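Format is sequence with structure; example below:
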Amino acid sequence: MLRAFFSLALMLPLPLLAQAAGNEEKLDASRIDLAALIECRQTLADFHYLAPALADPLQAVALGWRPLPQANMFMTEFKLNQPISVFGHGTDHIAFTGDSIIALLDLADPRPLAKQLELETAIDTPAKAMFGKEVSSIEDRDADTGTVYIKSAVLNVSNVASHPGKTLAGCSYSLDMAEDPEPAPAADAKP
């Protein structure tokens, strides 16, 4: 069990892992909208709410998610007791990878879905296809430190060799520090 937690810890972003370790509360299934999370219609906080289910298999089972064997070392997969519909397609197979939640859809080619969602092409070769688009980006300033953070959600559609005949479609939720602006030149500085 401890080894499984550490292997999961390698895949989780630090904010998600920190919340998972400190949250002993039982998750409220009525608060979770998987389809909205996958379609980038939720927030970073909603995504982080799922951390206990990733850290504790019993929490996942209580939500109606059955852990699946790890077919891809970068994905934690679940079979849902109740199928969901995302992007007009039904599925009972979801996965988490880093800061993303994805649905595994029975679509052999991700390109038609990427076109339907008007995504930008990142990679498009016969073996690998990746598409994406930032759907939200919000600046948030920490009142105590003044640090500016960017909360963003990026819609992704791709394929992966470990799941032939499947299209992976979902959302990456991230929190990044804003880049420091260039300091203004001093008024008396000479070139």
